[in-house]
Design a protein that fits this description.
By secondary structure, the chain is an all-beta fold. The chain contains no helices and eleven strands. A hairpin with a 6-residue loop joins strand 4 and strand 5.
Length: 120
């Protein structure tokens, strides 16, 4: 019953900014960690940023200082603000959440992915 719905991807010029959003819905008891992953062509999926329920964050070295992850617990949403974008940031970005559903089991869920293309 749980769904993660993403928005905000698109085409942006190098040096530009984008803000990705992800909303969790369905039978959710509580949400633990949330995060963003990305997968570039020919590359493995990698963690970009993660945030715990308490607000602790973790970033990939490649995005530190440029990306910011945040969450709104009331709205059950997580955001990724991406600044100073580079061509190497081009990838499909996926929202992830570790949460307890109606059965109180902790499971991982994924969004459908949204394309971010950084090009002049």
């Amino acid at each position: 019953q749980v769904q993660l719905v993403e928005s905000g991807g698109g085409l942006v010029q190098p040096g530009g900014s984008l803000r990705l959003s992800c909303a969790a819905s369905g039978s959710i008891f509580s949400i633990n960690a949330m995060g963003w992953y990305r997968q570039a062509p020919g590359k493995e999926r990698e963690l970009v940023a993660a945030i715990t329920s308490g607000g602790s964050t973790n970033y990939a070295d490649s995005v530190k200082g440029r990306f910011t992850i945040s969450r709104d617990n009331a709205k059950k949403m997580v955001y990724l603000e991406m600044n100073s974008l580079k061509s190497e940031d081009t990838a499909v970005y996926y929202c992830n959440a570790d949460l307890r559903g109606g059965d109180f089991k902790l499971r991982g869920y994924w969004g459908q992915g949204t394309q971010v293309t950084v090009s002049s």
